[in-house]
Design a protein that fits this description.
- This protein has 356 residues and is α/β, with parallel strands linked by helices.
- It has a single domain, classed as TIM Barrel, CATH 3.20.20.
- Helix content is 39%, strand content 16%.
- An eight-stranded parallel beta sheet has the order 10-9-5-4-3-13-12-11. A three-stranded antiparallel beta sheet has the order 6-8-7, with no helix packed on it. A two-stranded antiparallel sheet has the order 1-2.
- Helix 1 links the parallel strand 3 and strand 4.
- Helix 1 packs parallel to helix 10 and helix 8 crosses helix 9.
- The longest helix is centred in the last third of the chain and has 22 residues.
- It starts with a strand and ends with a helix.
- The structure holds NADP nicotinamide-adenine-dinucleotide phosphate (NAP).
- The site of NADP nicotinamide-adenine-dinucleotide phosphate has 30 residues, from strand 13 and helix 10.
Amino acid sequence: MRTRKLGRTELEIPVICFGAWAIGGWWWGAADDEQSLAALGAALESGTNAIDTAPVYGFGHSEELVGRFLAAERGRRERVIVMTKAGLRWDTDEGQPFFETKDGAGRSRRIFRNSRPASLRAEVEASLGRLGIERIDLLQVHWPDGTTPIDESMGALLELRGEGKIREIGVSNFSPGQMAEAQAALGQVPLASDQPPYNLLERASEEDVLPHAIEQGIGIVVYSPLHQGLLTGRVTADRVLAEDDGRRKKPTFSQENRRRVNAFLEATVAPIAETQEASLGQVLLAWTVDQPGITAALVGARTADQARENAAAGSLQLSAVELAAIRAGALNLELELPRPKAVGGLRGFIKRLARG
Ligand SMILES: NC(=O)c1ccc[n+]([C@@H]2O[C@H](COP(=O)([O-])OP(=O)(O)OC[C@H]3O[C@@H](n4cnc5c(N)ncnc54)[C@H](OP(=O)(O)O)[C@@H]3O)[C@@H](O)[C@H]2O)c1
């Protein structure tokens, strides 16, 4: 597993990290806890020693499971880098309304963006409790909250850092301007990272987020690098997704788009996968983490086999010719997508698609 320094911090993270959203059992349909724990175990044994979770993933459940995992074996906590988030609340109605959803039991939940200082503090305390740890290695503001000045949020996180409750401060879904505001408020403490969506089908970050991160030395840990499984070739046109699997409603998962993506994978990625003796998903993960400015990819896995397969991509190195061939092939891939609304533009549309 290749590792890289996260921005200007001392944290050294694997290029493939474990994304713990789906194991929370919300949005992706039901999850089996024992299977999820096995996935986490397989990931760690394969070199994936960093986990990204969030309070909202299963309304506490993902963090609780990660906590169970860390507590299961003596010394495990010390081996794992724990990255979580704060700033999305389902249990208060303060802040900026974000979206409505249903939890795993079918109850309606209203999600608010809330990065008010007192709320961030309450969330960090609750996360430490669920995770059963003394300090969070990377605390990321999940989404920008239009109702709270960024410097107030950063002030609260600096205090928590001073108290030893969090080690590094990062953000997620922040624009370059928002990152600059955060860094200005943090002063000498480096803004460790931003977490944008990025994969071969969603490359909007290349326009501004990645250049800004390169220029400022900010780490980038990308989410949905497999486009939620579509880029593995295993979401065939006839695969039936569970009733409560959020991917059913995503335009990129329409039958026609699945057909087009799979045809592209077969024509462009499969020959490279054959040469590299790797799977389609592994090739595209290796492609992702070798794009300029990207530190690591957060990959969701629901089973031990998926976790092992994804981890192995962290040792795969594609040639410059292979990297270029994949990008060139993707330029010819056209998907049927609704026209983006004028307000917010294409980037806003893509962000709404990837919301999670
Ligand atoms: N900051 C944010 O706003 C935000 C948003 C989204 C995600 N994230 C983070 O990023 C992580 C990863 O993103 P993601 O979960 O959206 O998408 P992803 O990593 O692109 O896709 C994960 C899904 O792909 C399928 N998959 C994974 N490995 C596979 C393999 N080897 N073979 C076949 N299928 C495989 C699994 O679903 P199936 O088996 O059901 O097909 C899995 O749940 C999340 O877990 C979360 O930590 C953050």
